[in-house]
Structure to design on (516 residues):
């Protein structure tokens, strides 16, 4: 039975007013501007764009400000906004080979054409707190060298020459879109990649780590990791040709994994793929590992019963907005549900007590 | 109205306008200092475009996530049609882009190229080169330690 309950409006209004005040914090401290968040919290902005599944740094900065830095709440705001946008269409596929690389490293080939370019990385920092940042300070200009404007080829292209790594079959198949049709299983690799790209970084990281620790082991090397901007093209229906409609920063990870070979395929390396909005290196590597683990069936591997091999498990639990919605709804009023449970438990306890009493009476009588 | 606009040329300027920084574009537009009469065919509206990637960078396509885009279309008094599809949610940016697209098909093209498009292209190119120069400075130069065994 549902009982309509009214009340609480004043409490809710006042709670929201207090939330606004707490969000602002001490008014003696300067207020954050969206530009400050966008420029100085850029990796948080990147995460909100990746998991919010909408590339717009200014909107992500606004969401972070509004959510007081709670990134899952910010992602929720972006997802909600996204649903209000009319869909103009689908882009042409982006060409990551054409990326203007800020960073490009390979753990497998030292002397890759284009070189090992570290970019603005946390790697090799000592993870010691830098108290200079606590004070205002001018940052010295980063050193420069002769810019390399040529295209940086993908590492896997070199391996493909020998067929020593599997080829990605080219296809014009229209990929499923989980923002248009609800997910069903088996989902297929295209929908898996879409889902992983917007999945929770922590969840995907945990799943990927589990494969490294021995659950669905597939021993990955980072064949290549690249970060940079790529142009996005879309065919304009009014014009009948494609134009660039903007550019997005992407992080791409290609793993090179072991493969034993089979009766029909000689031994060759296999691949996992990660592609994420923004500079999102951890997420992109994790995505590639989970993508590879989920390909066990297609590659004729054994199902070891590992969580990271279970498509339904991974995809159903990777979305932090779905997860937080279901998790947090249990804090909302369930007075009537609980009332019925309360009465049931009282009844069961009464019956148990009556049974115990009658047993005791029978024993006493004997 | 010039009917001999080649698609590749139009693609080049529309692409440049799509990625332009809004502040930069509106300043250059002010410098051009002409505001043509026009009617909206489609007033500016913000929307989303689903960006697609390819598995392994070269394989089958998949949907990666959306980006915000603003589009509009207008006609000049002489009937020339201008379109804009620009990144982000700025309606003023889309309006300027559509006006530039329309005027680029008229005799104003040369002036517009000089005052707006060329400075825009140069600014974009120098930003790209500046990043590439910083990236180049972080390229690892490996050297092998000679072991003194003989």
């Amino acid at each position: 039975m549902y009982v309509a309950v009214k009340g609480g409006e004043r409490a809710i209004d006042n709670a929201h007013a207090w939330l606004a005040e707490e969000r602002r914090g001490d008014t003696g401290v300067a207020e954050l501007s969206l530009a400050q968040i966008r420029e100085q919290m850029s990796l948080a902005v990147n995460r909100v764009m990746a998991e919010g599944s909408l590339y717009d740094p200014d909107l992500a900065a606004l969401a972070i400000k509004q959510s007081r830095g709670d990134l899952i709440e910010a992602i929720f705001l972006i997802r909600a906004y996204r649903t209000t946008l009319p869909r103009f269409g689908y882009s042409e596929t982006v060409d990551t080979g054409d990326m203007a690389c800020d960073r490009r490293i390979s753990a497998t080939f030292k002397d890759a054409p284009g070189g090992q370019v570290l970019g603005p990385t946390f790697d090799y920092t000592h993870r010691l707190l830098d108290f200079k940042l606590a004070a205002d300070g001018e940052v010295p200009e980063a050193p420069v060298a002769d810019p390399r404007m040529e295209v940086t080829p993908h590492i896997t292209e070199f391996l493909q020459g020998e067929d020593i790594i599997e080829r990605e079959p080219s296809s014009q198949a229209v990929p499923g879109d989980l923002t248009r049709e609800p997910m069903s299983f088996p989902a297929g690799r295209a929908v898996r990649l879409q889902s992983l790209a917007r999945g929770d970084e922590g969840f995907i990281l945990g799943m990927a780590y589990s494969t490294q620790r021995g659950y669905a082991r597939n021993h990955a090397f980072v064949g290549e990791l690249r970060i940079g901007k790529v142009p996005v093209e879309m065919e304009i229906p009014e014009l009948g040709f494609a134009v660039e409609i903007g550019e997005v920063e992407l992080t791409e990870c290609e793993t090179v994994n072991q493969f034993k070979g089979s009766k029909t395929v000689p031994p060759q390396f296999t691949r996992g793929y990660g592609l994420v909005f923004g500079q999102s290196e951890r997420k992109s590597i994790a995505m590639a590992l989970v993508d590879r683990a989920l390909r066990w069936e297609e590659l004729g591997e054994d199902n070891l019963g590992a969580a990271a091999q279970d498509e339904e498990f991974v995809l159903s639990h990777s979305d932090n907005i779905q997860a937080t919605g279901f998790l947090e709804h249990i804090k909302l009023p369930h007075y009537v549900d609980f009332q019925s449970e309360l009465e049931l438990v009282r009844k069961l306890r009464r019956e148990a007590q009556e049974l115990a009493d009658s047993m005791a009476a029978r024993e006493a009588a004997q | 109205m010039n009917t001999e606009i080649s698609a590749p040329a139009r693609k080049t300027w529309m692409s440049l306008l799509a990625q332009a920084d809004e502040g930069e574009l509106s300043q250059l537009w002010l410098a051009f200092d002409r505001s043509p009469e026009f009617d909206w065919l489609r007033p500016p509206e913000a929307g989303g475009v689903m960006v697609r990637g390819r598995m392994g960078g070269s394989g089958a396509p998949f949907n990666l996530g959306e980006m915000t885009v603003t589009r509009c279309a207008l006609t000049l008094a002489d009937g020339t049609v201008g379109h804009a599809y620009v990144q982000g949610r700025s309606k003023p940016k889309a309006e300027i882009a559509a006006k530039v697209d329309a005027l680029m098909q008229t005799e104003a093209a040369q002036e517009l190229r000089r005052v707006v498009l060329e400075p825009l292209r140069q600014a974009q190119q120098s930003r790209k080169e500046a990043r590439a120069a910083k990236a180049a400075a972080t390229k690892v130069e490996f050297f092998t330690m000679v072991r003194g065994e003989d």
